[in-house]
């Protein structure tokens, strides 16, 4: 796995600054989807802290991949539940339609038997020829009209029942296919989640080992919140509530998978902040990056979600002046930072 070679690099880096410089140059090839960069540490950060943040950013990417897979699994499980409910309803409709078909077919057969087995002809010419008077003819004609109406209704009901039975059968087959597909996809996602969680756990253990070598100054830099809480004016009440909620958590620790109210990961902070505004958004940064309305960078407003890297693996809440409030990464705290490099887009959710 990637973490083993990185671990050897970190060990060497902590042993000699010159080795860090050489390895850092060697490990930055141009790729279509570059690894997450550090969380813009101060220029005077130690080499150990810079390397720690590089590892932490990679772990954050694994964490967001893991959360996205969990989002996908929840969606597939919801699809499976819906498909199973549809299947149950379709099977009942199919059974009801089959009963109606049998009942109306019996009525149609009764009319056919009356016409052919008794030798009677259910038409007005027969009534005219066999009637003994004009009134008799009129009486028989009225009776025949009623019989014909009943016969036509029976035929119409039978046709409708046959159509409904066919439609119910097709709906049941579709629901069964959707349920099977959702079940198979859920099983695959479960296996993926287990593998991603194992990778994340390994990366976190590596970070714990590296964090023990950080100096007191490094740890102080990690806990820097970026300044006092500013007064931010958002364009709407929900966005304002979300911004205020996020800013109220300045200094709260970053914890993998945490969604508040005292610890957070990056998407945990944004989803928690918007939940305080009564707005439900997806859990992972990847899912959040497709939610709401896309916003160009020159149209950003306080409250907009801002995303980084490709694929997306970090999110914050824009507060104006090219700044955001966010939960950066492990060992860090909720803080105000400039928008990072590898900015990938923004969404307006309120």
How is this structure best summarized?
This protein is 61% helix and 8% strand.
Characteristic terms for this protein:
single chain; 350 residues; alpha+beta; endopeptidase fold (from Nostoc punctiforme); 3 domains; six-stranded antiparallel sheet; 8% strand; Papain-like_cys_pep_sf
Helices and strands, in order, run as HHHHHHHHHEEEEEE
Question: How many structural domains are formed by the residues?
Answer: 3
Gross CATH architecture of the largest domain:
Alpha-Beta Complex
Rg value: 35 Å
Q: Which CATH class of the largest domain is shown? A: Alpha Beta
Count the beta strands: 6
Tell me the β content. Answer: 5-15%
Mean pLDDT value: 76
> How much helicity do the residues have?
55-70%
Helix/strand-derived class? alpha+beta
Instruction: Point out poorly predicted stretches.
Output: 1-39, 116-121
Distance between the termini: 40 Å
What name goes with the CATH superfamily of the largest domain? Answer: endopeptidase domain like (from Nostoc punctiforme)
Shape: elongated
Largest sheet: 6 strands, antiparallel
Strands across the major sheet, in which order? Answer: 1-6-2-3-4-5
The total of helices stands at 9
Query: What is the third-level CATH name, the topology of the largest domain?
Result: endopeptidase fold (from Nostoc punctiforme)
Domain NlpC/P60: 236-350
Signal peptide: 1-32
GO molecular function: cysteine-type peptidase activity
Pfam families: NLPC_P60 (PF00877)
